[in-house]
Amino acid sequence: MIKADGYPTYNFCHVVDDHLMGVTHVVRGNEYLTSTPKYCLLYDAFGWDRPTYVHLPLLMGKDEEGKVSKLSKRHGAVSFQDLVADGYLPEAIVNYIALLGWCPKDTNQEFFTMDELKANFSMEGLSKSPAVFDYEKLKWFNSEYIKKMDEESYNAKALPILDELCQDYIDTKKLAGLLHTRISAFCEIKDQIAFVLNRLDMDSSLYTNKKNKTTPENCKEVLVDCLPLLKAAESWDNDTLFALLKDYAASKEKKAGAVMWAIRIAVARQGITPGGATELMEVFGKGESISRIEQAIAELA
C-alpha cells in the first residue's frame, strides 16, 4: 500500500478519499473491473461500508476502414468541449451520449430534455455491450436540435459566423434563414456558403436540366431577357423578384421553373443551393446579383 518513496499507492488513497467524501456509488468503465476486489478488501479491512460499484461498457470508435476500437483522438473530437467547439449544441451532445449504452424502458423516445433524462434513467437500462460512438448519428441529432431552435437562439449562433465571413452587401440574416434547416452543425456554415464568398468556377453544363428542359442556349436567352427587367426593379425582395420572373415566364410562354433555374445557376454558379433563385438574389443584393448575371451572359457567349 506504500510505495518505495514513502507515498501511498493510488489504490489505497482513492479508497480513503471516497470514504471521507461519503461516496456511495462509483460509476466507471469496465476496464477497472479487475481492480474492484482490491478496493472491496480495503473497505472491509477498515470496517467501512462498500460503495455500490457500476462498471459501464467502453465507448468505441470506428476508423475509416471500419475497424472498431476504444474511442480516442484518432476517431475525431472526443471531449465535450471539442464537440461544442466544432459547432455541436450541448443539449444535443448530452441527449446522444445518454443513449450510448443505455436504453429507456417502455418508450421509443429518442429526444430527451435533461429533466426527462433524470426522470427516465435507471441502471437497469444499461447495456453490457460496448457502444460505438457514431459521428453521423450525432450529426443527425444535432441537425434536429438546430431545426427546433427558435429564430433568436439560432441567429445568436449563426449570425456572428456569417457576419465575420461575408461582405457587407450580403443580407446575412436572410442567408442564416436559408441555412437553418440545411446544416447539421454550425461548423458547416463556411463550406455551405462558399458560393456566396467567392464566384465559383462555372461549368455551363449546370444550365442543363431535363425536368425543366433547359440548356445553356435557352438559359442564355432567359438571362438576356431578364437582365433589363431586373435592372429596372425598384424593390429587391423575394416576393417582388418572384412575381417579376413569373410574369416574364408567362409572357414568353416559358415554364417558371426553367426561368428560375437559369437565374439561380447564373447567380449561385453551382447546382445545389440552400435557396431558390429569388431568395438568393435577395441575399446577394441587387448590385451583386446583376453583376453575376452579366458575367454569366458573357461566359455563355
Describe the structure in brief:
With 301 residues, this protein is mainly alpha-helical.
Features:
3 domains, 301 residues, mainly alpha, 52% helix, Arc Repressor Mutant, subunit A, 5 strands, two-stranded parallel sheet, Glutamyl-tRNA Synthetase, domain 2
Biggest β-sheet strands, sense, barrel = 3 strands, mixed
- The fraction of residues assigned to DSSP E strands is 5-15%
Low-confidence spans: pLDDT under 50, at least 5 residues? none
Task: Classify the helix fraction into a percent range.
Answer: 40-55%
Q: What topology, given as strand order, has the largest sheet?
A: 4-3-5
Count all strands and give the number: 5
C-alpha end-to-end distance: 85 Å
- Briefly note the structural class of the backbone: mainly alpha
Number of domain modules: 3
- By DSSP (H or I, 4+ residues per run), the number of helices equals 14
* Average pLDDT figure: 92
The H-and-E topology, N to C, reads as: HEHEEEHHHEHHHHHHHHH
Oligomer: single chain
Radius of gyration: 29 Å
Shape: elongated
What is the CATH T-level topology of the largest domain? Arc Repressor Mutant, subunit A
